[in-house]
Design brief:
Layout: H1 4-15, H2 18-25, H3 29-43, E1 48-51, E2 54-57, H4 59-84, E3 91-97, H5 99-104, H6 106-116, E4 120-126, H7 130-139, E5 144-148, E6 156-169, E7 190-194, H8 200-208, E8 214-219, H9 222-230, E9 236-239, E10 251-254, E11 260-267, H10 275-291
Parallel strand pairs: 3-4, 3-5, 7-8
Antiparallel strand pairs: 1-2, 5-11, 6-9, 6-10, 6-11
Helix pairs in contact: 1-2, 1-3, 1-4, 2-3, 4-10, 6-10
């Protein structure tokens, strides 16, 4: 059930021959060449050097080999687990997540999961209060969730990605053309802060460099902050994931010294978690590798 283009890539890399790989996988040689050519077009990278002596990986192909192999192996793990659990055809799964994950990740993850488990009803709890989200997991109000590390509650986690913290600036900001946002300037310009007390990862950036934000405004709504930044009232710091698919006009800058928040999948306990919840973890990891290219 793996992506046929990935399977074709791996088999040609293994056998060193498009013809032999086609015979092994049951394709015509033309069909196998089509799969490889399509993958190269999608990636905009030449993967193989073709000559009369056989087919060998390019330098770029060698770099991508472990990643594509890892994706296929993880997909196989998921499908094998499904085959072991043929009776997993009904039930309910409650997943909690902050808005950034809910908007950018969950639709794709749920689509993939539901294709494998059509009988599982999924309910989503959107929660931007980090403490409350952990409590919901710990108390069993939800089966699993996506949290920011480290947790305060005694729950089990699997780290998924490191989400960069970035500065967002008005289009006419003095640092608009700078290659990055200098750490020394964190306390120099007017800052638009959030009143949400659980945004500890943002405040930690200032604290880690001994800086205190020059706060001009405090707002309790993320979109209000983005609007104020875009209209020139100041700058702010945001996790990069939260800024995906945002239409406000502003400039995004990486920090001079990179800072990250780690997003993790969390359950009360793996030992007591439902199979549906653990399968959702597998799906989440596969989806992230396919779509975010991380971990």
């Amino acid at each position: 059930m793996n992506n046929p283009k990935y399977n074709a890539f791996l088999k040609v890399a293994e056998m060193g021959s498009i013809k032999h790989a086609a015979d092994f996988l049951g394709y015509t040689q033309t069909g196998m060449s089509y799969l490889i050519n399509t993958l190269e077009e999608e990636l905009h990278i030449k993967l193989f050097i073709r000559n009369y002596g056989g087919t060998t990986l390019t330098a770029e192909g060698k770099e991508l080999l472990p990643f594509i192999k890892g994706i296929c192996n993880m997909e196989n793990r998921l499908y094998n687990k499904v085959n072991e659990l043929k009776n997993l055809d009904s039930g309910r799964l409650i997943v909690g997540a902050p808005a950034s994950v809910h908007i950018n990740w969950l639709p794709g993850m749920i689509k993939m999961y539901s294709a494998l488990h059509p009988g599982i009803d999924i309910e989503i709890k959107c929660c931007d209060d980090a403490n409350l989200l952990e409590e919901m997991i710990y108390d069993g109000d939800i089966d699993c969730g996506f949290i920011i590390m480290p947790p305060k509650k005694k729950i089990e986690t699997v780290e998924l990605i490191d989400d960069p913290m970035v500065a967002i600036l008005p289009m006419n900001h003095p640092l608009a053309k700078a290659p990055f946002f200098p750490i020394d300037d964190l306390d120099k310009y007017p800052y638009i802060d959030t009143t949400v007390s659980t945004d500890f990862e943002i405040h930690a950036v200032f604290a880690s460099h001994g800086k205190k934000a020059n706060i001009a405004y405090r707002l309790d709504n993320e979109f209000s902050i983005l609007s104020m930044v875009s209209q020139g009232f100041g700058f702010s710091l945001y996790p990069e994931l939260l800024l995906k698919n945002i239409s406000f006009p502003f400039i995004k800058k990486r920090l001079e010294i990179p800072a990250f928040r780690t997003i993790a999948f969390a359950v009360r306990s793996k030992a007591t978690s439902s199979t549906a919840a653990l399968n959702f973890l597998d799906t989440a990891q596969i989806w992230l590798r396919l779509n975010e290219g991380r971990r």
